[in-house]
Amino acid sequence: MKFTKMHGCGNDYIYIDCFNEFVENEQQAAIVLSDRHFGIGGDGIILIKKGKIADFEMVMYNPDGTRAEMCGNAIRCVARYVFDRHYVENTEFTIESMGKVKYITLTLNGNEVESIKVDMGAPILKSADVPVNSSKDKVISEKITVAGREFSMTCVSMGNPHAVMFIDESPKDFDLNYYGALFEKNTDVFPNRVNAEFARVIDRKNIEMRVYERGTGETLACGTGTCATVVAAILNGFVDNDVTVHLLGGDLKISWSGNEDDSVFMTGPAAYSFTGETDLVK
Description:
Layout: E1 2-8, E2 11-17, H1 26-34, E3 45-50, E4 56-61, E5 67-68, H2 72-84, E6 92-97, E7 100-109, E8 112-119, E9 142-146, E10 149-157, E11 161-166, H3 176-184, E12 195-203, E13 206-213, E14 217-219, H4 223-235, E15 242-247, E16 250-255, E17 265-268, E18 271-277
Parallel strand pairs: 2-3, 4-6, 11-12, 13-15
Antiparallel strand pairs: 1-2, 1-18, 3-4, 4-5, 6-7, 7-8, 8-17, 9-10, 10-11, 12-13, 13-14, 15-16, 16-17
């Protein structure tokens, strides 16, 4: 089976072109291929298919074999992949993931894709829809104590659930693996588990952030998590409407009006790592 390794700001996945390949057991393939010691290695696998309600479909699995709803970094890579292979000639098209359609706009430098802008849709803030168990209709700057430390938490869904915590120290100095795992697996609060972001506001236009992703652990970047972090920062009055988020793997630019009905727009790169063939799965 042929594959392509790509990443968005270091958030790396194994991409399988299902126009030309067939994966019989997708969950098992994700577990085997994502293993960084015995497989190809990645934050999961992405199957690129013909869309049912959009031009293309992105089917995403975490390294533990669980299905994921959306990944902002992955969808940018899918967009570049299908354009580079001339599956689409236009610079504007659509990609679906688990029934949700995202709108893509490519910026070209000559014939090369320079950056990809994704309409990530409006943020979901209602607690029951994130989902997060709370007596409040929305969780904005709500106190939560984990392992003896109190955090101020804002919960947002960008098609998948996020809990955003703003901290005083640099995220680089924060014990992400310890606290991130406790947040992710706290099903009393997050019935579908959660992606946990820990962020520090630098100024009105810049945030630094690290993320612990559900089913994966720490990744170098998370597109939906970056969007959720900016939404949370705007809701808390920390930043303006156009923000650059500095992640371990690079920078993403996020724009949101602050109106709950308006879309969040994410702009960032997509890069190739390598291509290959594997017989680890059929």
